[in-house]
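Quick one: co-fold with phosphoenolpyruvate.
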Amino acid sequence: MLIFCRKDLSGAERKAILEEARRAGFLAQEVGSHRISLFGEGDVSPLLAMPGVERVAPRPEKAGLAEREEGAAPRTSPVTAGGISVGEGFVVIAGPCAVEGRSRLLELAHAVKEAGADLLRGGAYKPRTSPYSFRGLGREGLEMLAQAREETGLPVVTEALETRDVALVAEFTDVLQIGTRNMMSYPLLTEAGRCGKPVLLKRGMCATLTEWLWAAEYLLVEGAPGVILCERGIRTFSSSLRNTLDLSAVPAMQERTDLPVIVDPSHGTGWAPMVPAMARAAAAAGAHGVMLEIHDDPDRALSDGKQAVLPVDLEGLVRTVREIAALVRVADETREA
Ligand code: PEP
Ligand code: MN
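Sure, here it is.
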């Protein structure tokens, strides 16, 4: 069973409910700030009468905060960050894979702005396959991102890798990113959900859509003020590219959730010449945006150079994906009318 408590539940009320649940014979565990899971057999009636308790129901079998209710009409829940609304119109997030240094980041940030993109990305904490690879500048990188935001006005998206870094990353960023490798790091999701910033949740490279929705549920039950889902490619038998970009996940997720869904064709392909085509395809598939990696000197990039688009090519790409997204919107509106 699951106890749904009032949103304004006080600490004393929560403690009393937990004590009563245990007295009634349940093993009780808090979920977020106002839900309590009950395990085992017991009598729920004394709990129903307690202040702060709204209702007691079976534990949900689907991610009810992340998934749309059966039969409900789709209505995207936009996520606002630094004045940008993800889920309304088509957003472009662009920037380097990693923050490599101040002057390079500032130059790239200005290029992102001039190309007409909406948010700046850049990793200060990088999850790398090899421990000898560049793993990011940490706090210094976050400070550089903050300066880039200051200079360009672009809100920032950056990743937190570890629970202990979440508060610091949240202090500097507008949107906290959870990477593919951590989509199933449940303690990290819990911390990220509590940090007060919206979260960009990448799809685990081996995750089903249902597992991805449950990961979003972890964030939402903790009170995350918004979740943006990002398809970034999955592992399949195909070894022709770094990942297999699962564009069908866009309409498939939109069938099930009101959370905005964006696409990362950079990690999705791992190869710069493929990125424009898959970014255009993402817009055509109805995504709410794309996330693109750029670099001015891809051969010398400290991470993911092979998939980096040149800053000079960004403006044209941004224009094209927006044109495609606008066509899709018109087509959708015409069909609905
Ligand atoms: C990234 O966006 O910097 C990143 C590491 O992506 P992913 O988690 O999708 O590999
Ligand atoms: Mn990268």
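If it helps, The chain has a mean pLDDT of 97.
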